[in-house]
Amino acid sequence: MSSLKRKPLVVVTRRLPEVVEARMRELFDIRLNADDSAMSPEALVSAIREADVLVPTVTDEIDSGLLAQAGPNLRLVANFGNGVDHIDVAAALERGITVTNTPGVLTEDTADMTMALILAVARRVTEGARIITDDKWDTGWSPTWMLGRRITGKRLGIVGMGRIGQALARRAKAFGLSIHYHNRRRVPGQIERDLDATYWESLDQMLARVDIVSVNCPHTPATYHLLSARRLKLLKPEAIVVNTARGEVIDETALARLIEAGDISAAGLDVFEQEPAVSPRLVKLARAGKVVLLPHMGSATHESRIDMGEKVLINIKTFMDGHRPPDRVLPSML
Ligand code: 8YV
Q1: Which one is catalytic: 124, 219, 246, 305?
Q2: Which end of the chain has less Cβ packing within 10 Å, N or C?
Q3: Range 107-293 classified under CATH 1.10.10.10
Q4: Mind listing the pLDDT tens digit for each residue in 162-191?
Q5: In this structure, which topology does domain 9-105+302-333 adopt according to CATH?
Q6: Residue 296 is a catalytic residue
Q7: Which atom of ligand 1 lies at the shortest distance from residue 304's CA?
Q8: What's the CA gap between 16 and 32, in Å, rounded?
């Protein structure tokens, strides 16, 4: 916690919604990234040398090497986003730098996008839309054409039953899916009852029994390639895999290989291991209608992005006023 006599210098690495930037301008001395391109490592170094507060996003790698070059004023990294796997939180804390994030405000939108991907894959939504825009609907309607899979009555396995996992479960239940989940900790009984959710202590056993798997856990050292080649092979051949969390939780190469071989039916991915690069194998599968790929759009609504900005503002303001910011991230939470 800290108190400055002057306005704090806040460096924001990407353009934020206008209302958020305007409020930041009123409260702080801010430096914005006018052209909104992802900051180079050199630009990040000069940012953290002068800033009191850095506001990064998922496109900035804030590792221990970078943090070692921070200037004496850097006290807070107020991440615009929930996931903090691009920030070395322990290294920051060792240097007396507080880290905050923006939990809670993007839950519903991310759960919506997960549901959208489940439906898009099962009902071939993007494939169908492309038939019209590519002028390929010359055969007209037919009883056996463009058939997808019904989702009602199927089993959904949620990997990570936190806020987003539970918001997805509420939606999926309304669509007639039965809810199964694996989580580090079992959720309270009342939540399980409300969601009719079945807890699987063994991820392997759950994977072998569900029709759709959705990844909704954070990326941490413990969840890196949690859906490994071995685990992906446990899935039924007709299974669908959906990921709106972080690419690193799934062994993407193994997933592509299994879909190519017909050992997994399809996938819907909003996140990738090497963003913004997307594996050419996945792109090829998308062209063949086997997977639906989106460019990390889970929280991309005006509402979420404004609320995320509001959280960043509150975290900075509270911290600068000498109080504990509401969304402090500690290594023990990861
Ligand atoms: C954001 C996200 O778009 O909040 C997160 O963890 O993955 C996304 O919804 C992005 O992280 C913003 O930095």
Answers
A1: 246
A2: N
A3: no
A4: 999 999 999 999 999 999 999 999 999 999
A5: Rossmann fold (3.40.50)
A6: yes
A7: 9
A8: 9
